[in-house]
Amino acid sequence: MGISKQEFARRRKNLMALLEPGSIAIVPSASLQTRSRDSEYPFRQDSDFFYLSGFDEPEAVLVLLPGREQGEYILFCRERDPAMELWNGYRAGPEGACEEFGADDAFPIGDIDDILPGLIEGRQRVYYAMGRHTEFDQQVMHWVNVIRSKVRSGAQPPGEFLDLDHLLHDMRLYKSAAELRIMRRAGEISAEAHCRAMRFCQPGVYEYQLEAEIQHEFAMAGARFPAYSSIVGAGKNGCILHYVENSSAIRDGDLVLIDAGCEFEAYAADITRTFPANGRFSPEQRALYDIVLAAQEAAIAATRPGNHWNQPHEETVRVITEGLLELGLLQGERDALIQAEAYRPFYMHRAGHWLGMDVHDVGDYKVGGEWRVLEEGMVMTVEPGIYVAPDNCDVEARWRGIGIRIEDDVVVTRDGCEILTGGVPKAADDIEALMAEARR
Ligand code: GLY
Ligand code: MN
Ligand code: MN
Fold first, then answer.
1. 160 and 194, same structural domain?
2. Does ligand 1 come within 6 angstroms of the Cβ of 358?
3. What is the DSSP string of 60-123?
């Protein structure tokens, strides 16, 4: 599996076709980040850079020059270096950049200050991700100033600087068949990991031990890294939306909320399941759980072409408000409560986000001031939740400290949507059955 060289080439070509005439586009790679002293975090390539190149090294810059006769695609990268490679691993080098990654030309990154001004010169427009990396902004200005300093010798500096993000991110929003194959697999692996954690769970284990089960399943299936820090929160920790300490012991009677997804071939999955540590939901847990599930199902039903981005969210708000009313956690009249956003103390986030190479993927949610209309090939999460704060004095004590979220990944299809993460149960009875099976 993976993205073919042809598809990477097609992406570059499609992007170049969107650029104004007389343009150059410049995209820097990610950098290695220090964790402590001589130790670095595992390298993760910048998603934009990888989307266009498939090149997985730091200290690289991708340049697109539409219409350039000697070649439109140039990569600057690290040179081969036996000593450095002995310590830190293989490098493609400029030669490999051309042979393995399809660059028309490649140069050592150390030569970029000498070469890039010459490539910019004569182009009227420079596209890059303005304002994202301060250091890179300064570098681009430096290269342009080199040209400006030579205007009296006839050099032509560019007159316009344009944001590349907008064009590139719109492309990334629509997933190709190959991208969807990868994302389906990421969803399957992640679903299996959630099943494994449910089977393993029992009162007394630590949250980080469930995280370890998840990580084991990811790696054994070929996905070494999670797409984001796994969240494993038991009991009231489930009410902390981005709880990543994962350090508490899980107690009998707790619900356990796990939000975890793998990164597979540079694409993310993002699943949340909430289940009872002892294998049986209490009546209160079950009552709230069934509301969240109904909200999620209503939102998934509203995820189809022609509906706009906010419609699934509006469905979750309606179902959650109705459910909380019925249980007595809210009092009043439905429409007035929705209008007043009375649900917000219990449901304070949105129903989802775009999903792709980044877990919170790129792409505009509004177009021309209006919610974006859903189209085939867009991938998003659907993840409503109810969280009753442990110190919420407005509700009976029996509800307090219960945190529930249910999250799946879906792709919009021709007439609805396909769930990419259906391999892990979410109906309360099915979760109880899976856990009971594991305990036999
Ligand atoms: N895991 C982060 C999120 O669900 O958005
Ligand atoms: Mn999530
Ligand atoms: Mn999410």
1. no
2. no
3. -EEEE-TT-TT-SEEEEEPPP-HHHHHHH----HHHHHHHTT--SEEEEGGGHHHHHHHHHTT-
Last residue of a domain, one of 143, 171, 199: 171
pTM above 0.85, yes or no: yes
Both 352 and 203 in one domain: the answer is yes
What lies within 8 Å, CB to CB, of 28 at 6+ separation is 46, 49, 60, 61, 62, 133, 136
Ligand 1 and 408: CB distance under 6 A: no
Task: Map residue 437 onto helix, strand or coil.
Answer: helix
C-beta atoms surrounding 160 within 10 Å: 12
Place of tokens 């051309």: 98
Assess contact for 255 and 394: CB atoms under 8 A.
no
d(CA 332, CA 325): 8
Catalytic residue numbers? 38, 242, 259, 270, 349, 353, 360, 383, 387, 405, 407
Which residue in 50, 33, 57, 410 sits closest to 266, CA to CA?
Answer: 50
The reply to whether 386 and 335 lie within a common domain is: yes
SS3 content of the chain, % helix, strand, coil (to 5): 40, 20, 40
**Count: domains in the chain:** 2
Q: pLDDT tens-digit profile of 295-320?
A: 999 999 999 999 999 999 999 999 99
The residue segments making up the domain with residue 102 are: 5-171
Report the range of poorest mean pLDDT among 43-52, 92-101, 149-158, 345-354. Answer: 149-158
Q: What is the CATH number of the domain that holds 41?
A: 3.40.350.10
Residue written as token pair 């508490």: 248
- What is the pLDDT confidence band of residue 133, given thresholds at 50, 70 and 90? confident
| End-of-domain residue from the set 154, 171, 188 | 171
- Nearest-atom number in ligand 1 for the CA of 260 is 1
